[in-house]
Amino acid sequence: MNDLQLFKERSNEAYEIYLPHISIDCVVFGFHDTSLKVLLLKLKGLESWGLPGGYVQKNEDVDAAAHRILEARTGVSRIFLEQFKVFGTVNRSEPSLTHMPPDLWYRQRFISIGYYALVNYKDIVPQVDDISDACEWKDITGLPEMMMDHELIYKTALETLRKQLNYKPIGYNLLPEEFTMPELQKLYEIILGYTLNRGNFQRKMLAYDILIKHDKSRKGGAHRSPILYSFDTEKYNKALEGGLNTGW
Amino acid sequence: MNDLQLFKERSNEAYEIYLPHISIDCVVFGFHDTSLKVLLLKLKGLESWGLPGGYVQKNEDVDAAAHRILEARTGVSRIFLEQFKVFGTVNRSEPSLTHMPPDLWYRQRFISIGYYALVNYKDIVPQVDDISDACEWKDITGLPEMMMDHELIYKTALETLRKQLNYKPIGYNLLPEEFTMPELQKLYEIILGYTLNRGNFQRKMLAYDILIKHDKSRKGGAHRSPILYSFDTEKYNKALEGGLNTGW
């Protein structure tokens, strides 16, 4: 079966299964050690890359659809996903798919609901499916050309993530259970894209009151053994809900 | 023409004009002096109230649709609207509309895109249309029963607005051009629903560096004439984009 036949078969199924005009795109950020990556895939027959995405079944909640779509790409079912914006301009799909027949499912106008997640990329094995040639982590410092408006969706997700550093805690599931203040600072710096003052960072982070300081320090050859911290999960989760301790 | 005939006629038009399955709901908060209100309407034949909403035309951007819908309700075309969340559970419309025939446009499953706005309610005259009995400002301290999941949409918008007080400036177009620190504090208190410490509020607000302090003070009979401030619009708009001066 050639690519077009495959897309036509999938198109007919899609009209049966999914709500028309509505799609989901997921921006999955992967952090590990010192780099931030994003999960991209390449549809068969296209040169540019795209975000993992899909559609909403006629009898499925939108959030459930996002989890189903992401599980198919990552093999992981319980990724914390957050809706961040709807992308709804009329011509957002053009010109990426104009080589396909106009009655194909994929040629509709889609209003896309953007979700993002931040995971430890070592925990996930990207999954290729039969309409894609590749599904890979790409470092955000050297992203390939993207299809449709996916670069805008990715950039909006990164902006959202950066803004959320000001009012939401971050780091759980991304750092080892016990970590040093410089390791936590590095996570913030990688996401923000610039370096931070060490003293200010520590003062502000401790004021948030979401860390537990441990008596022991990590074994190693350095002159000064760095102090270890872990997240106080109760306070961390409370801050996830209600915001960090910076409010009015 | 009775109500059902009217809804049927509108239903037929809607299938022609709009994308199926997608709706928009607007939470318009109105502030003035010492109260916060929300704009609600009552569809003909329903007992409960609803948010002003509508649908996306087949050739219309989603944001443009939100502005069109709100203009029809308020007569005002340039309200600053912000998308805040998509409401997409399967059964979110039930049971409000189950008395209508199942093939009616309004009985579809709708995934609704929530927008909110904060305006000075004195600037707006609510507009009733021919499928509604009423369109009114209701004080948030005594809201009537709402249809579908509109109470959830309203509450989520209010939560979003409250969280944004921590990282976005607020007050432009809501306060007179020159205002006192207690007047600005009152706006925050009305939105948050609790009182704030005066000294802390002033210190924090001045640290944001978005105010211009005026030499003159307001004339009046009080022992102490309150100092007048206005927003530094350049800094205010920069903070709207990039966040308040609290970041890393």
UniProtKB/TrEMBL annotation, chains A, B:
One Gene Ontology MF term: hydrolase activity
SUPFAM superfamilies noted in UniProt: Nudix, Winged helix' DNA-binding domain
Pfam families cross-referenced by the UniProt entry: NUDIX, WHD_NrtR
UniProt cross-references to PROSITE patterns, sorted A to Z: NUDIX (PS51462)
Keyword Hydrolase appears in the UniProt entry: yes
Protein name listed in UniProt: NUDIX hydrolase
Span of domain Nudix hydrolase: 19-160
Domain of life: Bacteria
Keywords carried by this UniProt record: Hydrolase
The keyword Hydrolase is annotated on this UniProt entry: yes
